[in-house]
Amino acid sequence: MAKKSISLSKEFLKGLWDDNPVLRMLLGLCPTLAVTNSAINGLSMGLATTFVLLSSSIIISLLRKVIPHQVRIAGYIVIIATFVTVADKFLAAYLPEISKALGPYVPLIVVNCLILGRQEAFSSKNGVGRSIIDALGMGLGFVFVLVVLGSIREILGSATLFNIQVLGDWFNPWMIMILPPGAFLTLGLLIGLGNWLNERKVKI
Amino acid sequence: MNKTAKMVIVLTVITALSGGILATWDGVTKPKIAYHQLQALKAAISDVLPSYDNYEEKDINGNKVYIGKIDGSTQPVGIAFKVDGSGFQGNISIMVGVDPSFTSITGIKVLGQIETPGLGTKIVEDPSNKADPFWFPEQFGGVVLFPQIDVVKNSIPQNPNEVQAISGATITSKAVVRIINDNIQQIKDSYQSAN
Hints:
The structure holds two protein chains of two kinds.
Chain A: H1 8-16, H2 29-34, H3 39-62, H4 72-94, H5 96-102, H6 113-123, H7 128-158, E1 160-161, E2 164-165, H8 180-203
Antiparallel strand pairs in A: 1-2
Chain B: H1 3-48, E1 54-60, E2 63-69, E3 78-86, E4 91-98, E5 105-112, H2 135-138, E6 150-152, E7 162-164, H3 170-194
Parallel strand pairs in B: 6-7
Antiparallel strand pairs in B: 1-2, 2-3, 3-4, 4-5
């Protein structure tokens, strides 16, 4: 049981940096690339995904001994899809503007491999407490990257941040940043930056 | 208990619970979602018609039209309806308001589109034009529908039936005009034959 010796704080922090879902594991890239054309979209997508990840982790870690191994994926998908639909309806009912901006990407959280990946790799093998910590860490790591990505693209592509103008009229927005190529460029540079920082950390 | 039976039972219970949760949640959110949709519809109608006291919803040959009326007057102030068509990347849906005789447009509002961000999306709002970000939809107000709406490029419209294209988004600009032109005759005919 060497695994249990990992402290809870490490379990939480690994999602933020060492095992960051986007920068280190390259999971959930479809929503990461598609909805981060503004900071608010990145934040809403990140929070919706975190909600689904956290809720499904709790349920699946509770049921981990009940669900037979052969049908676990089917079971997980039903549980995840339930929470995704709850989140989708919640956004449509209480935050219609955000729901409209995110469009089909909210229902598509179902197929985000980050969520199924964590259930398979973590919640199905660990208790509720640890699963909650893991889901929160992973979810916040995801939110963090989406907000950074969305902020960079929004500042350079629309000269605004959270819809507030941050760059003056002298700045001519780089249209490409809010188009799909801008997502690839920014994500590539962020992953490169992450790798560079990690390399330095190891050397020191 | 044998394995197969356990699989069936566990999956059945999970899906049944999931169904129950979703049905309950749907009941909670449905009226709110319907309310937002109605608000959006009302806002769109009041954006494209001159001021009115109330509107009447009518179904004519499968087309929904919204007739704006002023209290105490039998003559409507205008008629609003939704038209759809393909743009540069996907479907564009537009709320169009016209005067009761179908001679000119009173206003348009783009309800849904997936055009190129920063270019085609200027049909909704143009952030690069700080003085008048809504210049594109606004220029439709007063445009004459006869013989049809035309698009001009790189110049100020000279005739009452012309609108100016967005530079860099000519296809989207033309699509908006085409969608209106293509649909208006049919709605006009069915509206006038119903009255």
